[in-house]
Amino acid sequence: MRLTILTLFLLATGGAACAAPLLITTEHSPPSSMRDADGVIIGRATDKVREIMARSGTDYRIDQLPWKRAYMTAQTQEQTCVYSTSRTPEREPLFKWVGPTDEAEWQFWGRADHSFPLNTIDDARKLRIGTAIGDARDDYLRSRGFNVDAVSNDLINPQKLLLNRIDLWAVAVRNGGTGPGPYDWSDKVVPLMVFHRVKVYLACNLAVPNDLIDMLNAALADMRRDGTLAKIDRKYEHWGKSP
Question: Which CATH number does the domain housing residue 181 bear?
């Protein structure tokens, strides 16, 4: 039987690099991470993370939390990681990184009947932009002087758009995805422009051993080579679309 590079790596390092199980946190963000009818956390990013853990022989559990709590838990609690985390220069020294697991566009969404021009990101400077507390898009826009209005649950923002309490919503759309949906506002709140592109990762606490990070990255590289990542992406590519 042909040994994969990951298998050789595991043999060389003696298996799992850390005895303590990893706590992996995430948010409710369909189709990336969500619960099925039985309460099990599934989704495109979740399936990738579970496969990484299986291939590397890593014990773990996944908890679904509000994003800010999920993110801060991974930043402050040893043996903890969080997905899907945009890797930005500001966040670079805060974590050890496994990935990328995906890519994303940051888009401005607005009402379908909006009346203002939006051709460049600077056109948004005079507008009210809905974001989520602790999100990378909030940090990005806030640090550049945009007028942001952050909420604890990102899915409050489309309702605020419909009530004219904000003008734009900063949304992350994964590579090949269609954005949030389906919801009753799906035809009323639409994408208007892309303002940034990022790669997303499993971000791990700085105390997670380097050997384990190397194993997880080796598992992911193996998945990319053998087509598993593409297979998982295809599984969810029609999620939320009308038949």
Answer: 3.40.190.10
